[in-house]
Write a structure and sequence with these properties.
With 186 residues, the chain is of the alpha+beta class. Helices cover 45% and strands 22% of the residues.
């Protein structure tokens, strides 16, 4: 039998990534499109039954459909197309109807989280969460409901990620014996 070779301590594995929150803009941005839908439906129905000529009725229907597409359907699709997901490792922002844009920000990078609220946002309990990463343009989660709760969660996730990275570095340094280590093993 050969003597047992001591195995180096394995660094702690990164826990599986979990979704903490999925966020969209506050739904109050859909109040005007919903009111416009009701007004256009009522005015269009009234115009079709009151106007005597067929071309006038078709004009009312055409204008009504155009207003519905531009004023109701497009704002709703734009609201649906923008989503922010916060996981235990990163913040992911997806936006765009025809050209999709995806931005990611790792919690382990460290950042500053600021909440900015206008008086209208304060009335509805929402606000902008600005994540300052040190770049020219901050990462902004616009008009999110309960912004202070989001800020607290982001700060807690950032602290956990930074402590986990520090633990991994300490474990890697304790395993290093001065030899060159190739990727994935010895």
């Amino acid at each position: 039998m050969s003597p047992a070779v001591p195995q180096p301590a394995v660094p702690p594995a990164m826990p599986a990534e979990r979704v903490v929150a999925r966020l969209r803009r506050h739904a109050r941005v859909l109040i005007v499109p919903a009111a416009l839908l009701v007004v256009v439906a009522g005015a269009g129905t009234y115009g079709v039954f009151v106007l005597p000529e067929l071309w006038q009725q078709l004009a009312v229907v055409g204008v009504g459909l155009l207003v519905l597409v531009l004023g109701c359907i497009l704002p709703f699709l734009a609201w649906l197309a923008r989503r922010t997901t916060i996981t235990t490792r990163r913040v992911i922002s997806r936006s765009g109807l025809f050209a999709r844009v995806r931005r990611e920000l790792l919690h382990s990078r460290g950042y500053d989280v600021v909440v900015r609220r206008t008086w209208g946002q304060s009335a509805f309990g929402s606000g902008d969460v600005r994540i300052n990463t040190g770049h020219e343009h901050p990462f902004v989660i616009a008009d999110v409901p309960k912004p202070f709760q989001v800020q607290a969660a982001l700060q807690e996730l950032m602290d956990e990620a930074r402590s986990h990275v520090a633990d991994r570095r300490r474990a890697d340094q304790s395993n290093a014996d001065g030899d060159t280590v190739a990727w994935g093993g010895r």
